[in-house]
Design goal:
- 2 copies of one chain form a homodimer.
- By secondary structure, chain A is α/β, with parallel strands linked by helices.
- Chain A is about 45% helix and about 15% strand.
- Chain A has 3 domains: about 5-275, Rossmann fold (3-Layer(aba) Sandwich); about 280-425, Anticodon-binding domain of a subclass of class I aminoacyl-tRNA synthetases (Four Helix Bundle (Hemerythrin (Met), subunit A)), CATH 1.20.120.640; about 445-494, no CATH class.
- Chain A has helices at about 40-60, 85-95, 100-115, 130-145, 160-165, 175-185, 225-235, 250-265, 295-300, 315-320, 335-355, 365-380, 385-400, 410-425, 445-460, 465-475, and strands at about 5-10, 15, 25-30, 65-70, 145-150, 155, 200-205, 220, 240-245, 270-275, 280, 285, 330, 480-485, 490-494.
- In chain A, the strands form 5 sheets. Chain A has a 4-stranded parallel β-sheet. Chain A has a 4-stranded antiparallel β-sheet with strand order 5-6-7-8. In chain A, strands 12-11-13 form a 3-stranded mixed β-sheet.
- In chain A, helix 2 (about 85-95) packs across helix 3, helix 7 (about 225-235) crosses helix 8 (about 250-265) and helix 10 crosses helix 11.
- Chain A is elongated, with a radius of gyration of 27 Å.
- The first copy, chain A, starts with 5 loop residues before the first strand and ends with a strand.
- The interface between A and B is large, with 44 and 44 residues.
Chain lengths: ~500, ~500
């Protein structure tokens, strides 16, 4: 199959036509969370971005196998292969078994992503579920002379790899090995490495380290980069289409993944590398130590002094998708309030659309060229801000029909509905929310409101204005306003 | 700590005083599902039962580490170690990767259990996440001479085990090895076993078998029984308190688990074995082949010709808990309808309780002896049917207060509220549901109903009976009935 999709490939540094290795199948791997604490908002942005990409690829006809891992072992506190395992440390501090930590934060992660209306990936493999495969790849790289054992640990030999593959290390991140060498201080404990640029495939566990497995070299645990190499190729093959992650993973994590895979079979493992950009909060880097942080749960409750109010998951999702995934994005209460207005406007127009009566002609919009623009935005490296801007042209048109300025034919109405349904709900993954629209799923509220409006109408008809006013006042106490229009009374929750 | 809890131990065949090895900590392991199809209702009953047990142990002060596994490899189609892996087979039939099957049905399982208001376990380990440990235990049992290799597979040697441990095999199920021998036909392919009673620790994979791992004996996969032996002891220790599962797992699965663990270290692995009984449907065994089946989703939608209507998850949970976990339970539409009435009655009484005004004396009930009976029921092997029967004494008392026949003091009211809150919500795990009670979380519906009842009252007061009747009729269309009582109009959804 042929698509018009262009994607920005971090490997080449430019937009390229997307061509699947085995169309219509697409293999996509995205680095998931290390489950040792509540998922942070920057991670949510990454996973919402790839959810949108997964949805769009599916929408245009690809059959996507989407693999996103759970890192439940091997991720140390710093990138130089030193420090404690993040999960073990949390377990020690909270006096829990490491796998209790894993369970707690995996559940939290799934819960938050479900609130954001993310679809689950096709496969969600874990690092601890692939110890055998990780030992297997380490053995193979050792045998090929591109790794060495040192005191029970095994390190990838970057210099040997670079020699064999003509300076390939750094091809993704643009880093030069020479710079890495001169810029890296030799820390204590790193003396096991022949070279500071080398990285761990297998680490011997200290006696206190709980998470450990038997291996030919020591009781230990796999290096962090190794899991993604074995899990992506196990489920997607030695060469697959798309690998994604946050841009902070480009180096060393993704660079090391490429090296491990190439060391295995000499093949280029991934055709398109996609990276999402960072989130800031009020113009500053988010950081626990400075207190400049915001958790997803705090957004939904408003319980953070950086917020003027709470925001629903759909407003936050809409806000994130109003920026391109490769642009950095600044969170602020003001920006979220603006996004909330836009989201409500869009959702209200979709409700209006459902009640529009067709006319004999379409006046006020060139529907076909509008639809081309919508798809064109998505085909241009998933440009959701341009898509959303164009959606608002549709909103203007819909509201114009409502107020009698424009008209639409039955067939155009059908086309408009299916277009918006596809792009707003299926691709952007937005949905109506009770708080944002009376068209939410609460049928009962709607039905009861009809009885109340009926009583109000009867009171007016019998000139019992006191009763009619009383109803209006009682509704107003519930923040419900009633507007009388040509098509009868309409109500909304403010 | 000391508790009055007695539990029926399948190992001894009688009720025993419960004594935790390392109180207040309790280790509990429950065999989870093999994730190759939608979870069936019998499994739901097992997991709801152990959820109640987990909740009660926690309620009386134990700190429970509750481990429930996911079987994502190694479970073959029949118990004689032959046939295809259940997950591989489903993957082949649906043209998916086995781990896509695992993901789909793990999500389904979690979703259904959440609807039933089950709490997640503390750890949810997978078979594929413990291949290294399973190979390790197999090596050890081989080394000790209680297993043998045969054509790349490794079998547990029941005769050798029985010799070493003086006929221990069968201690849980009561089966005798001699009977097993004479009753088991030798199937083709079983010739690898020295004895039909032996069971697989490791199976060599056929060339077509996708799910395979390297081992010292072959590329293959672990035997089904092995995973629970290694995962329970990894997270709960070599000896732990409670092991649970459906009674169909008693033999061979649990019998083999005990044998494997004893072969490892000679210790009795589990102090209390708890088994849940079976579900039938209209008096007959549930079976896909005869069509006598019912899925959880069909209960919730009513979409099965064996049901007169749909039932909410809480009604089904209540229905299940009205039987003792060790009794068999027959599902039928009539029995569910009866349970629904009981559940609604209980929940309505809890709503009434919230609005009761205290008096100077408690008249109509001996609260302390009632509370003793409630706890006594639970301490008697988690006897939820007796607990529920006693709860209805409380319901009678509450309704008596409502109608002015009985009274209650402020401190007794407080005690009654906390008792019911603890046992109904925390221990039985029931909760209010929108459909079952107007006290559900839909505040808006309540508020709108107040406006409607207010309009109706005003219409009556001004002798506008036509409007009052119209409101009654419109509400009736929504299945809402209004009853005029001493305390004003009350409404309910039928």
């Amino acid at each position: 199959m042929e698509s018009k999709l262009q994607v920005y490939n971090s490997l080449s540094g430019k937009k390229e036509k997307f061509k699947a290795i085995n169309a219509p199948n697409v293999g996509m791997y995205v680095c998931g969370p290390t489950v040792y604490s509540e998922v942070h908002l920057g991670n949510c942005r990454t996973f919402i971005s790839f959810d949108m990409i997964f949805r769009y690829l599916t929408f245009i006809g690809y059959k996507v196998r989407y693999v996103r891992n759970i890192t439940d072992a091997g991720h140390l506190e710093n990138d130089a292969d030193e420090g404690e395992d993040k999960i073990s440390k949390k377990a020690r501090l909270t006096e829990l078994e490491p796998m209790e930590i894993v369970q707690k934060y995996t559940l939290d992660f799934h819960h938050v992503l479900a609130l954001f209306n993310n679809l689950p990936p096709s496969i969600e493999p874990t690092a601890t579920g692939h110890i055998v495969e990780q030992i297997g790849l380490t053995e193979q790289i050792l045998k090929d002379g591109l790794a060495y054992e040192s005191n029970g640990s095994v390190y990838f030999d970057v210099a040997a790899y670079n020699k064999k593959f003509e300076g390939a290390y750094g091809e993704l991140s643009g880093r030069k090995v020479e710079d890495l060498l001169s810029n890296t201080r030799t820390l204590e404990g790193q003396s096991e490495k022949r070279d500071p640029a080398d990285f761990a495939l297998w680490k011997k566990a200290s006696p206190m380290h709980i998470m450990r497995w038997k291996s030919p070299w020591s009781d230990g645990f796999p290096g962090w980069h190794l899991e993604c190499s074995v899990m992506s190729s196990k489920y997607l093959g030695d060469q697959f289409d798309i690998h994604g992650g946050g841009m902070d993973l480009k180096f060393p994590h993704h660079e090391c993944e490429i090296a491990q895979n190439k060391a295995r079979d000499g093949k280029k493992p991934v055709n398109y590398w996609l990276h999402t950009n960072m989130l800031t909060l009020n113009g500053q880097r988010m950081s626990k130590s400075t207190g400049n942080t915001l958790l997803p749960g705090e957004l939904f409750t408003g319980d953070n002094d950086k917020l003027s109010k709470s925001f629903t998951p759909m407003v936050v999702r809409f806000f994130m998708l109003q920026a391109h995934y490769r642009s950095s994005l600044d969170f602020s209460s003001d920006a979220l309030e603006a996004a909330e207005k836009g989201f409500n406007k869009l959702m209200e127009a979709l409700v209006v659309l459902e009640s529009i009566e067709p006319s004999k002609a379409t006046i006020g919009m060139d529907l076909n060229s509008w639809i081309l623009k919508l798809h064109g935005a998505m085909d241009d490296d998933f440009n959701t801000p341009i898509l959303i801007a164009n959606l608002f042209e549709g909103v203007k048109f819909i509201n114009g029909i409502k107020y009698g300025d424009f008209t639409i034919t039955a067939s155009d109405l059908k086309l408009m509905k299916s277009t918006l349904d596809g792009l707003v709900f299926q691709v952007l993954g937005l949905k109506h929310e009770g708080e944002n629209s009376k068209s939410g799923n609460d049928e009962m509220v709607n039905d009861l409101m009809q009885i109340i409006l009926d009583s109000r109408l009867r009171a007016r008809q019998t000139k019992d204005f006191a009763s009619a006013d009383r109803i209006r006042d009682l509704l107003s106490d519930l923040n419900i306003t009633v507007k009388d229009g040509k098509m009868g009374a309409e109500w909304e929750v403010n």
